Task: structure prediction
Amino acid sequence: MIRYFTAGESHGPALSAIVEGLPSGITITPEDINTELARRQQGYGRGGRMKIETDKAVVLSGIRFGKTIGSPVALQIENRDWKNWTEKMAQFEKPNEDIPAISIPRPGHADLTGMIKYGFEDIRPVIERASARETAARVAACSLAKTFLRSVGIQIGSYVSSIGPAGETASSSRLESLLAEGAEALTKEADTSPVRMLEKTDEENAVAAIDKAKEEGDTLGGIIELFITGVPMGLGSYVQHDRRLDAELAAALISIQAVKGVEIGTAFDNARNPGSQVHDELFPGAAHGPSRKTNRAGGLEGSMTNGSVIHLRAAMKPIATLMSPLHSFDITSMEAHLSHIERSDTCAVPACSVIAEAVVAPVIANALLKKTGGDHLAEILERLEEYRAEIAAKFKQ
Result:
């Protein structure tokens, strides 16, 4: 099974990741990784850090002649801003000059609880690792699983449906047309917008809302729509709680910094409607299984893929660092104080949608590997083709 770990601080020398369990024989190019890293850095509303960093991954192991070799892949992403933090983030000897401690936590951030949990007298170590800068390493690591899935006909795509008060008017027919080409057609279309929205009016309203929030020293969150196409029926399982695919997908998304809600299909609308208006009716005659005229279940029934497009939604809260800071207190003096200000974004929802695409890739890849087995790509492709043929044969009229 594929698993990955990341390491590194926001202003340390570098971020790194180790990816274990990738089958051998997957063709990987530098662009497969670096294009995803570049996409993560885009989006209207990003802060000054994106003007400093130009993220590119250096591959240290696990790939030979452009193909995975079955051993762990090690990746490193240089932090160009490290040169300005060598004393504040020195790993060993403390510099002679006084480094002021940060003792005023930001509401909504890991600052206060992290400081107490790990016994720090300075919030800086919490800021460094809790920072969403860590997601650059995750995007690099997960891009390998995303490339693997693409090689077996499974695509992951996304767009932003709302930012703050703006959005939610994307045409369902246009969305269906894009998804019919594969989820990456949706991604390609969304990437032409600075806020990754599909409708020009939504884009203009979102840009205006971000400008207003920036002027007021505020921040904005939003909602991400994520789709996975080409997934066969029967991935995942209902037999144990820790094998439920919907739970694994939700966990992957909720692990992203500032994501506080996940929805599968139209789950919250479903909760308000009777079953007759919720469950996706089945019709015979489709080439690769029964057809459905709706997809309210989001492609998952009984915690397994049902052959429909997987549809997930993620809610990202506004970023916790405000240029017009909220009320807080100094933990050393216990006196009231406005919260600490750290360089940050006004809105990072477009970037979060790219991260969301990344983190679900290993989940789907592992569900596929559990079904097919196999240590190299050719073996997996053969078994997957056989499985898809078996499904088609069962429903052949």
